[in-house]
Amino acid sequence: MRTRTENRVSAPPAAAKPLQLGDPRRRLRVGMITMAFVLSLFGGRLFQLQAVDAVNYGASAAAARTQDYVLTATRGAILDSAGRPLAESVDAVDITADPVQVRSLKQDPAVYASKLAALLGNPPGSVDVGKLRAKLSDVTTRYVLLAKQITPQVWNQVKALGLSGVYGVPDAKTVYPSGPVASNLVGFIDGSGKGAAGLERAYDGLLAGKNGRISYQAADGAEIPTAGINEQAPVPGTSIETTIDAAIQWAAQRTIDAQVSASKAESGTVVVMDPRTGAILALATSPSYDQTNLSAVNPADLGDRAVSEVYEPGSVAKVITMAAAIQQGVASPTTRVVVPGAIQREGTVFHDDTAHATEHLTLTGVLAESSNIGTIETTDTFGPDRDQILYRYLTEFGFGRYTGLNLPGESAGLLAPPSKWSGSQRYTIPFGQGLSVNAVQATSVFATIADAGARVTPNLVKGYVDTGGRFTAAPAASRTQVVSPGTAHEVEQMMESVVSEKGTAPAAKIPGYRVAGKTGTANRFDSRCGGYCGYTASFIGFAPADDPQLVVSAVIQDPTSGPYFGGSIAAPVFQKVMSFALQSLAIPPTGTKPPNLPVQW
């Protein structure tokens, strides 16, 4: 069978679709939206910078340009009684730098350091160049102190160098025109400008004033004139006018220094007081120190021993016992006292400083010869309230309480109430052992006798001087009548016998003047030896005796070379200081004769 072959024809390929272009309007819309979004981000950021955060960013930028410094207030002066400065502030400048600014100006810290070092230091050129370079290179801070309290003259030399980024800030410094006179009393200020001792510390709030501040904007180390200055002016401190007589203070210091050195003593003090006002004219302590060289000072010498160092006064306290006996009406200057070589009380045997047979002394003689036994016998006449009576007079004369000077480190001393007195203390306290006082307290006792029995609170501040030079007097010191004028007069006459050839202190005599006083030679308690070791030698007196205008005390602690008696080493100090003071203040002799009371019967 035949097969039919069919011819098949292939279909032509489909035609390709034509290329279609995107809608340009759509692309334009997308592009515009994208661009608008990007611009909105920029616009939003710009709005944030210029509107929302403009103040903050402006402040930040201003802060980066702002120089801000403390303006130290000028410290008030400490003046002597004549208005002359013992301590005062003078113009000075702190040199500071901005290390970041120095670097941004592409300046070399090493060159800056070299130029500055040639002008700084005492003497000039003595500063450490390496330390200056290190400070100027410290870009972690915008403030470094390169030199403190240089003179205005040196600052003018520094300014002439034209060192951008280096600044001068006023910072007055304290100087001592009289040198170390009254240094223990005046004190000093520490590195932060605060009073650290003496009057500088006691009256720091008044002397310091109130610091101010100044801020201004600077570029390239120079002030921007149009940016303005924000300044809070400092308030200067108030000056203090003291009662100290600089000349008498100098004489007292020189004299006690010499005696402490000659006796190889641990320390010594001299107090000079006006008994009528309680004013302290001199307050000298030895060893002393120089405020301008504190690095060489023994810390133990920084305080004022006249108020901080307490000691057992010894026989100078017998003045209180005698005043109590006369005021109580149980004795008079001529009362007869039989004084054996020793007495026993409550199991304790008491002796005088020098062994003797039985003596027949008047009450004046008991004081003149400084008899412990006679003093004990005198207190036996006080009656059953003996201890309470004695305690009352001791406290009214100022023992056991603060002096009123308000100096740092002052001790009120130690005076236990009678209920705590031991059996032996009941008999040692009347002659000045078993209690402790400071030198100003002891001096005040004699000032009370000198002022007709009235105790005037010791004081050091005469008044205050403001920045306009106006003087305001300090409140008057309080006055308390401790014993009657008659009692004080009789005790004064008894004390004159101490300075006679019959007494323990003829070395205290001053030609032409009547002098009244009392010696003390006390056993000295020292914690270093765990008990009594060494002595305290003292003499306190006033002149003219019949018209007292000055009281001087001299106390020497632990003399180890030569004599240790108050009449031997303290009385001569009194004599020299009192003689100088009488002449310096032009106080004439009274021209009267001493009473010459009997010391024996």
TrEMBL record:
Main location: membrane
Keywords, sorted A to Z: Membrane, Transmembrane, Transmembrane helix
GO molecular function per UniProt: penicillin binding
SUPFAM superfamilies, per the entry: beta-lactamase/transpeptidase-like, Penicillin binding protein dimerisation domain
Region (Disordered): 1-20
Penicillin-binding protein transpeptidase domain location: 268-578
Location(s), subcellular: Membrane
Gene Ontology biological-process entries: cell wall organization
Domain Penicillin-binding protein dimerisation: from-to ranges: 72-219
Positions of transmembrane segments: 28-47
Domain of life: Bacteria
UniProt similarity note: Belongs to the transpeptidase family.
Protein name: Penicillin-binding protein 2
